[in-house]
Fold this protein.
Amino acid sequence: MGFKRWCRGVVSRLGVIRELFGFLWENKLWWMVPIIVVFVLLGVLIWLAQSAAVVPFVYTLF
């Protein structure tokens, strides 16, 4: 049952993300999409940098 609950949570989050991008596009705020994508990628990079095995590879990017 835990896996089903997790899958439902992921699907609901994807629905929210889809609605957010749809809202931005309909209200002609499409120029904000790259900014949001960059913030998400930086967040993932920071999250990955917390692992000691990945730190040397992250430092080579900068």
